[in-house]
Structures are given as structure tokens and as C-alpha cells.
Design a protein that fits this description.
Length: 107
Amino acid sequence: QRTENGLFTVEVIMEKEDLKVGENKPLRLIIRDTSGNPIERAGIKAALWMTEHGHGSSKQARVEEKGNGLYIIEDLYLTMRGKWGLIIEIKHKGKEDAVVITLPKIN
């Protein structure tokens, strides 16, 4: 998925069954530039946002870089069932962009 200003692409690797109310398995992100090159040493922030109720999670997600454009998001805590989004903010070499990934509905 392309970021809002088109500076990066973000691929989230997960299975629908990876998400549930409560603590979740880490998700993997692959971040690339517009030419498909992996983005390394970027400042990445991740936050969960429940669009239906206008609030976030009670825990702050952590992002760890693994190299070659791969980032791991940990401490993903979904407080309730419903529709959630994952907000990803990217800062790299003076450029900033963001994307909201729509997560599968949590039942």
C-alpha cells in the first residue's frame, strides 16, 4: 500500500487469525521506496486506531528494525472487537509520510 504522499510503499505481513482482542502476535512490515528499494534506518512509529469509536489502544506499539526494509511491530493490544486501523508514520532522510492500514474486522 502506498503512503499518503506516495513516498513509500508499506506491506503488512499477517494472517487474519493473527488478530484478536487482547495481546497479539507481532506483525511484520516491509517498507520500500517508490523504486522498490528497501528503506533502512528509518524512524517508524505505529499506533492502533479504532475508527468506529475514535480511540486508540491502551498500549503503545513498539517497532524494531530487522534490516533490508523489514520492521517488526510488537505490543499490539486490541481493547475490543470492531474495525481497527494501524497508523504507520515513516521518517527517512528528511522525508516524512504516513499510511493507515485497515486491519481485518475483529469479531
